[in-house]
Amino acid sequence: MREWWNRFRAWAAGRPGMAADLAEELQSHLAMQGENTSPDQARREFGNVTLIAERARDAWGFPSLESLWKDVSYGLRAMRRAPAFSLVVILTFALGVGVNTAIFSVVRQVLLKPLPYPGSERLVRFGEGTARAEGISVTWVNFKNWRSSNHTFEEMAAFQFTARTLTGRAEPVTTTGLTVTAPYFALLGMHPLLGRLFDGADDKPGAAPVIVLNHRFWQSQLGGDPHIVGATLTLNGNPFEVVG
Q1: Alpha helices, DSSP H only, in 128-209?
Q2: Please, where are the H alpha helices in the chain?
Q3: Among 212, 241, 235, 216, residue whose Cα is nearest residue 165
Q4: CA distance 159 to 164
Q5: What is the C-alpha to C-alpha distance for residues 96 and 74, in angstroms, rounded to an integer?
Q6: Widest CA span of the chain, in angstroms?
Q7: What is the DSSP code string of 10-55?
Q8: Residue 72: its pLDDT value, please?
């Protein structure tokens, strides 16, 4: 720490003062070296004065920072001389950094960052494709056939994104949710904070429509009502019983 403090004091004193003191000290050493020899002999024995001065300046200051500052200054001067070219270079770098950041974010979320579910490494999302199109969607009939003939996976569940409008409670609110089969929450290792999740009876034809709320919607749209379980919400004009 003391060494860094001494360097900072020497640097803060300014280069002109440092250069003058260094030159005076080198001349003093040369004079002492040349008391019993010729000046040329003294210089040969003392060594390269310029090299010694450079090493001394490096020891007193911050050569890496000074070199960086020189590079930055040179770059700024070059940009002022060719502003159009500099703008193109900056935009190119910005676009490259932005694209790399976006790609890395997607790769991190999809491939590197584990899903926030227990045993996420065992979860598989799959679908079907045709000769004309490939994707991850599947028809309802095919999903039922897959599940009935499944001997590989512990459980299978289907889901579909849906947009519904909540009415009957203050202003209408459009929200995005999922239509899922009963095993969906159990497959992801989820547990209800209140009430229950879906069960096999909810999947049977003719069963009453029921809904499970996520925490954000419960808090923001329903005020975190602790008695919401058993209440009825109207979505797209249809009544849904809140079960969890």
Answers
A1: 140-148, 184-187
A2: 2-12, 15-33, 39-46, 49-60, 63-81, 83-107, 140-148, 184-187, 215-222
A3: 235
A4: 15
A5: 24
A6: 115
A7: HHHT-HHHHHHHHHHHHHHHHHHHTSSS-HHHHHHHH--HHHHHHH
A8: 80
Q: Is 119 left (phi over 0), alpha (psi -120 to 50) or beta?
A: left
How far, CA to CA in Å, does 176 sit from each of 158, 160, 173, 243?
A: 17, 11, 10, 18
**Cα 211 to Cα 197: distance, rounded to the nearest angstrom:** 9
Structure tokens at 195: 């009430």
pLDDT tens digits, 89-131: 888 888 888 888 888 777 776 666 777 788 877 888 888 877 6
Q: What is the token pair recorded at 181?
A: 């089969």
* Sequence-separated (6 or more) residues with CB below 8 Å from residue 185: 197, 198, 212
CA nearest 43: which of 52, 33, 58? 33
pLDDT surpassing 60 at residue 5: no
Q: Whole-structure pTM over 0.85, yes or no? A: no
Smallest Cα–Cα separation from 143: which of 213, 206, 203, 208?
Answer: 203
